[in-house]
Amino acid sequence: MSEAQVVAGQARSVPLRRALPHLVRDPLGALVHFGNQAGGEVVRLNLGTFRPYLVTHPEHLQQILRDRTNYIRDPESMLWRGVRRVVGDAVLVTEGELWESSRDTLQPLFTAKRAEMLIDRMAVAIAEAVDALDEPARAGQAVDAITLMSRVVCQATTRVLFGKKIPVPDALQIYAHLDTITRTMVSRLLAPGLPYWIPLPGDRAFRNAVAGIDSLVLPIIRKERADPGDGDDIIATLCRPRADGFQASEEQIRSDVVAMFSTANETTIGVLSWLWPVLETHPEVASRLYAEIDEVVGHGPVQRTHIPELRYTRMVLDEMLRLWPAGWTIPRTAVGEQVLGGVRIEAGATILVSPYATQRMEAFWDRPEVFDPERFAPDRPKRRYRYSYFPFGGGPHQCIGQYLFLLEAPIIMATLLSRFRFRLGQPADLKPRLGASLRPRPNTVTLLPRERASVS
Ligand code: HEM
Known about the structure:
Helix 7 (119-131) runs parallel beside helix 18. Mean pLDDT is 90; it is low at 1-8. This protein is an alpha+beta fold. It has helices spanning 16-25, 27-38, 58-65, 78-87, 96-106, 112-117, 119-131, 134-138, 145-162, 168-190, 203-226, 234-239, 250-272, 275-281, 283-297, 311-323, 355-358, 402-419, 450-455; strands at 12-14, 43-45, 53-55, 71-72, 142-144, 332-334, 338-340, 343-345, 350-353, 420-424, 433-434, 438-439, 444-449. The site of protoporphyrin IX containing FE (HEM) has 23 residues, from helix 13 and helix 18.
């Protein structure tokens, strides 16, 4: 008998004795498993006092993500509380007027056209960040794989988003604080119902890290607010009074700055960290990728004109976003009573939308667990459902940074691989670790200068 019981007139429900142990043991695998078991139907996960609906069918996802009236991103929901303790009422988590105001201010910085304009700035910032890897590579030094990717991404992203307002050493420190926050937040994420007055391990480190970020970010914001310049970076844009005279408060600006910094870095690092384990376990993908980059970029540097030529690079990236979408869950709350896929959902219910689950489901993908960039070949027929692949969400809250990411990430991949080959310290593991985004298990990487690697 299936483990989901049919309850008349209501969603199928996965009973507590099955849902809880599976989710505790392997939360990501459990979401895919429950989605597959339900064959895309809406299913309810009974976790005791918390009983969210898991929605995985692309048609239902489309209905939810495009409808900001009936399905909201509820900042008060238990799942968002931890994030809000870091980023307050930032554009990333809010709804309503606060969200509209921040989104209106930031949106013009993130159009496809503007991302295009930033390509040269990005390429230079990335080349500079990658230059710093020459020395450890020449010394044959093994480096923690995430740290290596974080340095490159953090330096490049900070330059692109914040100009020179946040100096690189400060950016690396902010990133280190955010890393502490991400690690210490996991215990709260796993116990979303627990009140904050009950201390959990990591709470103090979390608070210190938030204070550490503020001590670096607030002086920059105060200086900019006192004398707003006409720069095109995020801080200048947020600090300038808008055309209608509205000026955001210091607290609001701080929230948006920290949210933009953290999300841009965390997501980009999260996705690109899969590059090494993927190439290690898929030599045929690696040779094709190296061949493309050798042919298009040679020894570099990456130029604007190379980007449309890096087709296979983009296919590899799209497939990494399918299997390890950094935004692995996009929770929503039903405002009133809703009917979705023939199932009644009560007002206030939490709805789990998960790109990770849907993008790995048998009903929507052939051999979903296999890494195969060919799925994204430009001549492939169009996918049946728009929302079977939605790493950047959809509807009004669709990711503001996607155009930037989709240009920045191939430049990083091509810059790194035009200069280096690599060796991992331990066998590659493709099973993700759950955190704010999805990261590979810890490993070390030794970069090998490309010439030396091809001779040996
Ligand atoms: C791999 C890279 C990225 C992934 C997978 C990703 C994923 C997502 C997803 C799924 C959402 C939807 C959230 C929701 O509907 O509740 C989102 C929203 C958002 N993302 Fe990204 N993101 C990425 C990169 C970035 C970057 C580079 C930036 C900034 C430069 C960014 C800024 C934002 C912001 C501000 C929102 C909130 C938009 C709104 O609610 O109006 N993201 N992202």
